[in-house]
Amino acid sequence: MNKIVVIGGGAGGMELITKLGQQLGKKGKAEITLVDLASHHIWKPLLHELATGSLNEGTNALDYQVHGTHNGYLFQRGALTAIDRDNRQVILAPLFDRHGNQVLAERRLDYDYLVIGIGAISNDFGIAGVKEHAYTLDLTEQAMALRERIQNQFMQHASGQRTGKMKVAIVGAGATGVEMAAELFHMANTLRGYGYQLESDLLDLTVVEASDSVMPALPKSELRQAVHDKLIEIGAKVAGNTQVTEVTAQGLTTKNGELIEADLVIWAAGVKAPEVLATLGLEHNRANQLLADASGRSLSDERIFTFGDCAAIPQADGSFLPPRGQTARQMALLVGYNLIRLLRDPEAELDSYVYKDLGSFVNLAHYKTVGNMFSFLRGGLQVVGCPARFVYASLYRRHIIALHGPIKGALMLLLCGLSSVVRPRLKLW
Ligand SMILES: Cc1cc2nc3c(=O)[nH]c(=O)nc-3n(C[C@H](O)[C@H](O)[C@H](O)COP(=O)(O)OP(=O)(O)OC[C@H]3O[C@@H](n4cnc5c(N)ncnc54)[C@H](O)[C@@H]3O)c2cc1C
Q1: CA atoms within 13 A on the CB side of 77
Q2: Average pLDDT over residues 145-154
Q3: Which of 9, 254, 361, 413 could cross-link with 258 by S-S, CB 3.0 to 4.6 Å?
Q4: In angstroms, rounded to a whole number, what is the distance separating the alpha carbons of residues 158 and 139?
């Protein structure tokens, strides 16, 4: 029986593995295995909500092992470290627990087809001090560590053991940066409602952006302006045209020699693919993304496919797409479709990836949601407020339905909805 190994159960990987498991694994047509660093999946575009406690990991995390049992795939927890292409084996690093004890030794998994979709990590662009002094939002563990740090800091202010303003700098005014900024204001307000003695102007938060606008990826200047104005209205400062040259324990140093003081720095200035991809012997670009043809197949090996943030798949005009949730999903489903075809007929002609820009949305916590829908149609349709919030939330709903099917997915969403009514608005610990 053919063996397909998928590395990375993220935004794209989970939709791919569910499709392969149901269409091949469950029917005994192929053995499907998912590999991931983590034991569970949380949709990455929600990591900033996890970091502030707006999202409850208890109700939103999906356990890979259990999901695999119901959906026709096997699960191996571990990190991809190398590929033995001659023997068609993927090599996983030993697994350690949080105390540094080895749980599992190095493992080798056989494959006939290998799919790599391990996403992206924050890019520090070689700027000094980022690793030591800034928090990033690449993995669930990082979001949880950030949550603990933020909650502790609010608690110190509430108890009077920390005085003055709570100075926060967020580097990068893309979706991650601006959504995180709004979440922090929302968190401070909610904690005040829970009895924390916090001044209403406690947060001194600056969003720092190298370009001249927040959300440079939003297609319309009115939408970018709406995000900017709302950030200012809720109390944030926006420092545009500002390049950070160093992060220290005191805050950020900028190219102009200015110091932006910060007790807490969150780095959301851009991403690159994980370093391991540059060590596999597969063609890659400077951002470590694997180079693939339009079908998602690696340029170096016809048995290896890739998708999502870690893949560089060209469009018909030779351009490459930015790392985004919808591109990851679209590419992953295309790779799934192509693999199913290949198993039926190894000579089959494969489909090419054609990006369909369904739109971009930004959700500033409970303050405002803006977006642009159907961007492929004459620049698209601007949406603001409740309709925008509905569409934004629908993206996650669609993901959950893809993973669990319409009935179970709807029940899970109902459960999350009910839980948000009966549980506190913030998960504190
Ligand atoms: C806070 C935040 C907000 C965002 N908001 C938006 C948004 O509004 N709209 C949008 O389009 N995009 C948004 N994004 C970007 C979006 O989340 C990504 O583009 C998308 O998740 C990419 O999907 P993926 O499947 O390629 O990778 P991911 O979803 O990142 O999944 C990668 C998976 O690979 C696993 N992995 C990593 N390394 C290894 C390894 N060595 N071995 C094994 N497994 C590994 C990880 O654990 C993870 O499960 C946001 C991102 C963040 C962080």
Answers
A1: 13
A2: 95
A3: 254
A4: 29
Return phi, psi of residue 319, to 5°: -80, 165
Closest atom of ligand 1 relative to the 9 alpha carbon: 49
Residue-wise pLDDT for 24-68, tens only, equals 999 999 999 999 999 999 999 999 999 999 888 888 899 999 999
Q: Does the Cβ of 371 fall within 6 Å of ligand 1? A: no
Per residue in 213-227, pLDDT (tens digit) is: 999 888 788 889 999
C-alpha distances (whole Å) from 33 to each of 37, 106, 108, 193 are 14, 17, 12, 46
pTM exceeds 0.90 for this model: yes
Distance (angstroms) between ligand 1 centre and the Cα of 300 equals 24
Identity of the amino acid at 246 = E
Identify the structural domains of the chain with CATH numbers, from first to last: 2-120+273-344 (3.50.50.60), 124-270 (3.50.50.100)
Tokens of 89: 């084996």
User: Hey, which of 6, 44, 137 would you mutate to test ligand 1's pocket, going by the most ligand atoms within 8 Å of its Cβ?
Assistant: 44
Q: Are 379 and 390 in contact (CB under 8 A)?
A: no
Mean pLDDT of 392-408: 92
Distance CA 247, CA 265 (A): 8
Rounded CA-CA distance 337/349 in Å is 11
In this prediction, residue 392 carries a pLDDT of: 85
Q: Which atom of ligand 1 is nearest to the CA of 326?
A: 11
The atom number, within ligand 1, closest to the CA of 47 reads 1
Instruction: State whether the beta carbon of 61 lies less than 6 angstroms from ligand 1.
Output: no
Index of the ligand 1 atom closest to the CA of residue 360: 9
d(CA 29, CA 27): 5
| Phi, psi of 258, deg, nearest 5 | -80, 150
Angle (CA) 353-350-13 rounded to 5° is: 55
Pairing of strands 113-116, 304-306: parallel
Asked whether 326 lines ligand 1 (CB < 6 A), one says yes
**pLDDT for the residue 130:** 97
44 lines ligand 1 (CB under 6 A): yes
- Read off the amino acid at residue 12: G
Q: How far is the CA of 85 from the centre of ligand 1 (A)?
A: 26
The alpha carbon of 216 and the centre of ligand 1 are apart by a number of angstroms equal to: 20
CA atoms of 193 and 202, how far apart (whole Å): 14
Q: How far is CA 338 from the centre of its chain?
A: 25
